[in-house]
Each structure stands twice: as C-alpha cells, then as structure tokens.
Structure prediction request, 161 residues.
Amino acid sequence: MTAYPSVHPDLDLVLERTVDVAPELVWKAWTTPELVVRWFAPRPWSTSSCEIDLQPGGRFHTVMRSPEGEEFPNTGCVLLVEENSTLIFTSGLGPGFRPRAAGDDFPFTAVIRIEPAGDGTRYTATAIHADASARKSHEEMGFVEGWSAALDQLVEVVKGR
Prediction:
C-alpha cells in the first residue's frame, strides 16, 4: 500500500470536488499530453505544449501562454503513478529525480487523487509547499480559482465539448 503525503494546513492548498465524469476519463485527461494542452491552463491563458514521461523519474513539462503571448515553461519530475488513481509530480525536481537549480518562485509537489464517486469522480488536487510563504504566494496567485477553472475545462474536454 502506498503512503500518501498528509495535508498540512499551513503549508498546503487543496481543491476537492466531485465531477460527473468517470475516473478513467479524468486520468486520461491528466496523462495524455494532447488532452492536457486543451484544459490545463485556466482561460484566457492556454497551454502551448506538454510532455509527460509517465513513470517515476519521468519528465512532466508544460508551457503556459499568457493572453499577451508570453510563455512560461515548467519542467518537473513524476514521483508516483497509480493508474486511474494517483499522480504525483513536483516542480522541485527535474527528470531523473535531479535537483533543480534555484530560481523557481515556489516549487511545489502536486498530488492528484482520482476516486470513483457514484457515476462520477471524487477529485482531490493538493499542492504541497516547503513553507508558509510559498503556500501564500501560490494561494495569492489564484490556486483555488485557477485549478477549479482548469478542472471545469478538463470536464468539458472529456465530455467532448
């Protein structure tokens, strides 16, 4: 059995919702680069590219584009893959579990949990931070609003809208 990080209220941010799509579809949307680019950034932002090597130590890379066309690449490392259930990745490490050079505003680890809930999915996204300052920065950046909007977009994509 896998041990998952526990939530620390002073350090972590959590988005929990139940959505009306099957867990397998949520998983596919999170793990298929061609789908990730369609929902990952909350509008009016977009995701211009995505690469995922879906294995521990693999690369998780996205490029977000602002409405003005400025691009923001982010490369991280996949930590855990449990098909149709759990995806954990971090911006604090690069591919191959290599430490990243300083410079990331606030590295964090994302824990995506996908659980069956009736005909839908219980979706929990947790952003784990090293300190309260990083948590605050991520919260002020719009974590709840942005990740919630992106989840709405994920549901639209998997429903074919």
Observations:
- The chain has one domain: 13-158.
- The mean pLDDT is 94.
- The first helix runs from residue 23 to 31.
